[in-house]
Write a structure and sequence with these properties.
CATH architecture of one domain: 3-Layer(aba) Sandwich
Helix content: 40-55%
Radius of gyration: 18 Å
Number of helices: 9
CATH class of one domain: Alpha Beta
Shape: globular
Oligomer: single chain
Structural class: alpha/beta
Strand content: 5-15%
Distance between the termini: 36 Å
Order of helices and strands: EHEHEHEHEHEHHEHEH
Largest sheet: 4 strands, parallel
Strand order of the largest sheet: 2-1-3-4
Length: 254
């Protein structure tokens, strides 16, 4: 089984870190391939960067030359999962939904701890769109930018832990979700200090993607996520034909 794990930003070191955590969670025999978009922002912390990342991730996945069995979009609260689901015949798992759904098995209410405050409304909207907002106690900001998580890991743990503790004490959360792909790998440290379950979206997404592949299940193509209708799309940067197990074709003007 080969799973593509697509970082939503262009920071290669973050792709490597995310892929490392994904491999640690994967079953024997599962190959994890980390993808870094060839264009986009160094970090995604707002709507412009998120929409840009949506196109960049589709480009990265469709440009991958070898067969694959599933795709993980490794950006918390980012746009684009629906586009990938239209284009591909294999399962597509977004870490936002993977983390939230996993958290709901572990407690009555969960809270998300993310990066900057400006990301909070994006995550709230994403959870509402996914139908997972009713059991979300809160979305809290650690105050650190995405790239600061990698640059200052000790400060990151302290900031995340402080907000996670407030979420448990003040918001009555019973589970904490790490609301950024760049926080992957910090879950164990937070759990040990806080004493409640802590869900990392990357590792949760890996186990869900593996399960879907093993069950022989993928996205329904009868309506919402049917393949795109053939048409000319001027200036579309993606390849005309897709790779992997998808049979989608996105025509464009020459």
């Amino acid at each position: 089984m080969r799973i593509l794990v697509a970082n939503v930003n262009t920071t290669v070191s973050m792709t490597d870190s995310i892929a490392l955590q994904a491999r640690a969670a994967a079953l024997d025999g599962t190959e994890i391939v980390g993808l870094t978009p060839r264009f986009g922002a160094a970090s995604c912390e707002g709507n412009f960067e998120s929409y840009l990342a949506a196109v960049a991730v589709m480009d990265a996945v469709l440009s991958y030359a070898r067969p694959f069995d599933a795709v993980i979009q490794a950006g918390y609260g980012e746009h684009g999962r629906e586009g990938l689901q239209e284009l591909l015949e294999v399962p597509v798992v977004d870490i936002t939904e993977a983390a939230a759904s996993t958290a709901m098995f572990l407690g009555h209410k969960y809270s998300v701890v993310t990066t900057l405050d400006r990301a909070v409304p994006l995550i709230e909207d994403r959870l509402k769109l996914a139908g997972m907002d009713a059991r979300c106690a809160s979305v809290r900001a650690s105050g650190l930018g995405v790239l600061e998580l990698e640059e200052f890991p000790h400060r990151a743990v302290a900031a995340i832990l402080a907000e996670a503790r407030r979420a448990v004490d003040e918001d009555k959360a019973e589970v904490i979700v790490l609301g950024c792909g760049g926080m992957s790998g910090l879950d164990e440290q937070i759990r040990l200090q806080l004493g409640v379950p802590v869900v990392d979206g990357v590792t949760a997404a890996v186990t869900i993607a593996e399960s879907l592949v093993r069950l022989g299940l993928s996205t329904s193509k009868v309506r919402t996520y049917a393949l795109p209708r053939p048409k000319v799309v001027t200036g579309w940067p993606l390849p005309v034909t897709t790779s992997g197990d998808s049979s989608a074709k996105v025509p464009r003007e020459s």
